[in-house]
Amino acid sequence: MKLRKSALWALVALLPLVDPNPYRVEIFATAALYALLALGLNVIVGFTGLLHLGFAAFFAIGAYAYALLNLRSGWPFWLGLPAAAGLAGLAAAALGLPAIRVRGDYLAIVTLGFGEIVRIVVTNLEPWTGGPNGLMGIAHPTIGSFNFGVDSKPYYTLLALWVALTAWACSRLARSRIGLAWAAIREDELAACSLGIDASQLKLLALAIGGAIAGAAGCLFASKQGTITPDSFDFILSVMILAMVILGGLGSVPGAIVGALVLGTAPEFLRGFASYRMLIFGVLMIVLMRLRPQGLLGGQLIRRKAGSGDAAASG
Amino acid sequence: MTPTELFLQQLVNGLTIGSVYALIALGYTMVYGIIQLINFAHGEVFMTGAYMGLALFLACGVAGAGLASVPLLLGSLALGAAGCSVLGLAIEKIAYRPLRQAPKLSILITAIGVSFFLQNAVMLIFGAQDRYVPSVVPAARWQVMGIVLTPLQGLIFAVTGLTLAVLQGVVYHTSLGRFMRAVAQDPLAARLMGVSVNRVVAATFALGSALAGMGGVLFGMYYSTINFHDGYLTGLKAFTAAVLGGIGNLPGAMLGGLLLGLLESFSAGYLSTQWKNVAAFAVLVLVLLVRPRGLLGERLAEKV
């Protein structure tokens, strides 16, 4: 990472020192969590072009993995984090194994189905997951003798740094040979295959990496909340994360973060409108998309073929 | 109840709710068939239709149960259909048409925006709590071979069957239907042949939304309560039904809806209600993996 960027991120991470308002810190901590999820989904949808509608499932798997490892085996947060990420990544690849045989919108439906199945299984597997009541008493992270506790500030700093690390890794990935192969698959899978790219393997890799990012986010979430319930991982969350990725600009790493910031904080800033806020939020999504159909920071990565079929549908 | 009676009762119940899914699924499948767009706001259109029916009943002072009235029944179905087709036209014009040339996924976002808008508009008007919906169909119960049938169930079968027949007629025997099939095949070529693509797409939205509106009115009377959240899960299931049957295929949507209804009612009757949604989604995933084009879908050669 460049020095200036690192300095910027360090500044962002230390924001609670400047503005210690606990309400705003909490909002931005949540937005950072969304940013992590958006970065993960961006690897799958943005880099590789696989439309995934069940992404919240990997967030759930990460959260429950850490919660169970912690509650049943006493694993500390710092061991739980890689374990949760690894398990969620494995699950993403395992569920992807049958799913990548279908393409485009059908893949979206299969992933939607898996997402719902994971949520319903978590809800009904009461002896393990506590059913609809969820799991309680999950340990907060500790560094030495410092316990993160219930205050949002240390979580915010940890999350901001984790977002920075993930964003850096994602940008490096996008420019690597793997990232270029993903882009080739996204633009034209047939052509990519004919150049010797193993599309199936690379798609599974994208799913595993995206899933692992979500799993880590789930672990961070569970450790911050101390309590998790299946409600936190519904279809709406999958859709919102996708909305963040698309609003930011598909395939753009800064875009995913900006999209998460906009959609993650907007409902809070619209609180002044009281019960009208989600109504206005809906209108905002339509207006933003009409103004910038390619996403706020998108446009460079997705090149459409001139005269391709879609353009003809304008009538 | 003997095992046979239980089986038959679940069969009838499944077919009833399956018919409602089918009505909604038809809208998904028509829009997808013509512009390859998953209209994510369709479930909310269905929900809004249910509330339009309720609004009519409230306006006419039908608050309690048991008032049977043919004009009110026809009026509520007509209002649901007309109101939702206007709604569908507006959604298409405001949220989808301006983005038809944009990257495909951006329409997904405006669809979600529309969903939020409709959900919250309905919540603000009618409140967040469940609303009781009076039934204007006679509340008789017929005992046939040990199972219970109601006039409302008969009505739901009739409306759904009639709708599919009319729709097939429109698509295969009218000029609008010919235009629709032409746009579905190749929008550019259709346009060069003088078809107004915008109008055909708008008509498709109007038709599909009208069906969802009627489905909503029937759904409200069948379950006798509605909530502004109902559009999401029911929409998701109807969409599942459309994919199951082969998206873009009208009889497929019908078949998918009925199968999904049966699957749900049998897994609720024989397994447990908690697992009925898993059964639905598990079958969906399996069908797609074995037969990605759905049960009645045609295999399309990949365009290169």
Write the layout of secondary structure elements.
The complex is a heterodimer of chains A (315) and B (304).
Chain A: H1 3-13, H2 15-18, H3 22-47, H4 56-73, H5 77-99, H6 104-124, H7 126-129, E1 142-143, E2 146-147, H8 152-175, H9 177-187, H10 189-194, H11 199-225, H12 235-248, H13 253-269, H14 277-291
Antiparallel strand pairs in A: 1-2
Helix pairs in contact in A: 1-8, 3-8, 3-11, 3-12, 3-13, 4-5, 4-6, 4-11, 5-11, 8-9, 9-11, 12-13
Chain B: H1 3-35, H2 42-59, H3 70-96, H4 104-126, E1 131-132, E2 142-144, E3 147-149, H5 151-173, H6 175-185, H7 187-192, H8 197-223, E4 225-226, H9 230-245, H10 250-270, H11 276-290
Antiparallel strand pairs in B: 1-4, 2-3
Helix pairs in contact in B: 1-5, 1-8, 1-9, 1-10, 2-3, 2-4, 2-8, 2-9, 3-8, 5-6, 5-8, 6-8, 9-10, 9-11, 10-11
Q: How would you describe what is shown here?
A:
The complex is a heterodimer of chains A (315) and B (304). Chain A has one domain (3-232). Helix content of chain A is 70%, strand content 1%. Chain A has helices spanning 3-13, 15-18, 22-47, 56-73, 77-99, 104-124, 126-129, 152-175, 177-187, 189-194, 199-225, 235-248, 253-269, 277-291, and strands spanning 142-143, 146-147. In chain A, helix 3 (22-47) packs parallel to helix 8. Chain A starts with a helix and ends in a 24-residue tail after the last helix. The model of chain A is unreliable at 301-315 (pLDDT under 50). Chain B has eleven helices and four strands, in the order ααααβββααααβααα. The N and C termini of chain B lie far apart (58 Å). In chain B, strands 1-4 form a two-stranded antiparallel ribbon. In chain B, strands 2-3 form a two-stranded antiparallel sheet. At the A-B interface, helix 6, helix 12 and helix 14 of A face helix 4, helix 7, helix 8, helix 9 and helix 11 of B.
